[in-house]
Amino acid sequence: MIFQEAEFYVLVVCGSCDYRERRDLWANLVHHSQRFKSMPWVILGDFNVSRWPNEHSGGRPMLSKAIREFSECIKKCELQDLRQAGFFFSWSNKRTGVEAMSKKIDRVMGNWGWFKEFNHVKAMFPSMGISNHSPCIIQFKKAFISSSCPFKYLNVWASYPSFLDVVKQVWPQTVEASPLEAVRKKLRILKPVLKEFHTRHFNNLATECTRLKQLIEIQQASLDEDPTNEEARSNEKKLLDKYNAACWKEESYLKQKARVNWLKLGNSNSAFFHRAVKMRQARNSIDKIQKANGEWTKSQKEVGEESVKFFTDLFLNPLRQ
Questions:
Q1: Angle at CA of residue 170, ends 168 and 176, nearest 5°
Q2: Is the pLDDT of residue 138 over 80?
Q3: Which of 82, 242, 255, 319 is placed for a possible disulfide with 123 were both Cys, Cβ 3.0 to 4.6 Å?
Q4: Is the pTM of this model over 0.90?
């Protein structure tokens, strides 16, 4: 399929009720995942098994063999769930009493290529109606690009030798205010200074790594022709040091954005952090909210206006139930 000149592939699944028969499906999915590894791929449908024990109502949550095999398939295919809206449970047996049961066995998942191109797209699961399955709707629309980003302190700034000198240029300034208000005002003054500092030294970390790597390859090509070339060998060593430093900065920056705290930095983690950032952005984005009258917002401007209206009303009427 093609959307806004971006090509992607869709696979619709209907899993067997027998977990042993589903093993052929898992094997086929793993095989196809290698074929679509370098392109956007989304897979959706009725898998007839939950991914997590809590996706099952009634009784004690259990990590069954069927769930473990499904989770292992997802891991091998390198898939992640799309952000979901609507009903959590997608299937119901429509019974009452102790026999009543609901499960999440319908889902939509995408690979890294999908989230790279369509991380703003989410899966909508409306009410089941007369069916025992909730329909799944994927709404394609143009991605909203924010005009501004909130200011955040980056830990990697402190690694630059002149960072403290930049802060010291601002912090000693005298500000007439209470101690707490003085800190707030100094931080406000420091904000544009740090933004300029970031632009000058950390704005194009990925580009800098690529540039240094290309220069290293040029020096190594010279050494391949003449291994005794001391100048080329010295240049290679200097470039390698700069490249390792640039990679560390990039990974530190991406690690903080991805908020992955359990993984140590290393020169093979950048791709993982890029993916983690994209996944987090997909989870945190808000493209529409429901108004008090039951209608849904239709634009990002409406989302902002409705959010301000809600919290204004909340704070002006703190006792509102």
A1: 125
A2: yes
A3: 82
A4: no
Q: Which of 39, 125, 20 is nearest to 82 (CA)?
A: 125
- Which has the closest alpha carbon to 47: 70, 15, 16, 93? 15
Cβ atoms within 10 Å of 125's Cβ, excluding its own: 21
- Cα–Cα–Cα angle for 238, 244, 249, nearest 5°? 125
Measure the CA–CA gap between 170 and 198, rounded to whole angstroms: 16
What is the domain partition of the chain in residue ranges?
2-138, 155-284
* Consecutive H or E run containing 44: strand 41-46
Residue at 95: amino acid letter: R
Q: Alpha helices of 80-227 — where are they, by DSSP H?
A: 112-118, 163-170, 179-201, 205-225
Which CATH architecture is the domain 2-138 placed in?
4-Layer Sandwich (3.60)
Neighbours of 275 (CB within 10 A): 18
Mean pLDDT of 274-298: 70
